[in-house]
Structures are given as structure tokens and as C-alpha cells.
Amino acid sequence: QVQVVESGGGLVQAGGSLRLSCVASGSMRSINAMGWYRQAPGKQRELVAFITSGGSTNYADSMKGRFTISRGNAKNSVYLQMNSLKPEDTAVYYCYANLAGYNYWGQGTQVTVSS
Questions:
Q1: Which end of the chain has less neighbouring CB within 10 Å, N or C?
Q2: Which of 44, 49, 47, 41 has the alpha carbon at shortest distance from 66?
Q3: How far is residue 18's CA from residue 29's CA, in Å, rounded to a whole number?
Q4: H or E stretch including 10?
């Protein structure tokens, strides 16, 4: 069993920054990728960013230049630095870890950006 736990959400004013953290633990095999999705009220879950085992990164267009994904040295943790936050970034942010083609999800962390 693999557990994925996020932390770091909260309330921030527009233009501010937050850093989300995520750690995967448990019956670990090789992690192919880790990343973040988000889901705003009434909207579908959307990709934010991911990082592969080789270190390649990929971002949704609306996050490029504002968000940065990185991982820890042990490669079972991932971070999302979010700058220049906008009210439309308000959502529950979910971390996932892909092992052997299967995504393990965290419970999500709320990010609220006030105008």
C-alpha cells in the first residue's frame, strides 16, 4: 500500500505565494512520476504540473512562469512553489505518485486566494 500526503495549503492574498509539499510512503517501488492536480468548485480536476523520475517537468499553460515543481533528494517527495497567486487558483490541490502505471492520490489540500 502506498500513502500520499500533502501539506502546505492555506489562505493567501492575491499576489502572494504558497509552497505545497507531498510525500509518498509505504510499499514503494520505482516512482515513475509525481505531480499535482487541482479541482475548483464546480469544475473538473485539472493538471497543474508533474515531474518524472528523470527530472523532466511539465506544466499546464496557465501555471507556467508562476508555479515551480521540484522534488526532494529521496525522490519520494515533491514540492509546488506557487507565486503570483490569483483568486482563480483557489482549489483543492491533489498530489499523486505514479508507480508501475498506477496513480496513488493524496487527500488534497485546500488553497484559497483572496482578492
A1: N
A2: 49
A3: 30
A4: strand 10-13
Q: Evaluate whether 81 touches 93 at the Cβ level (below 8 Å).
A: no
Per-residue pLDDT at 75 exceeds 90: no
- pLDDT tens digits, residue range 28-44? 778 999 999 999 999 99
Tens digit of each residue's pLDDT (9 = 90 or more) over 77-92: 999 999 999 999 999 9
CA separation for the pair 3, 19 (Å, rounded): 20
> In whole angstroms, what is the distance from residue 89 CA to residue 113 CA?
7
Burial class (CB in 10 A: 0-12, 13-18, 19+), 36: buried
Q: Which residues contact 59 (CB under 8 A, 6 or more apart)?
A: 48, 49, 67, 69
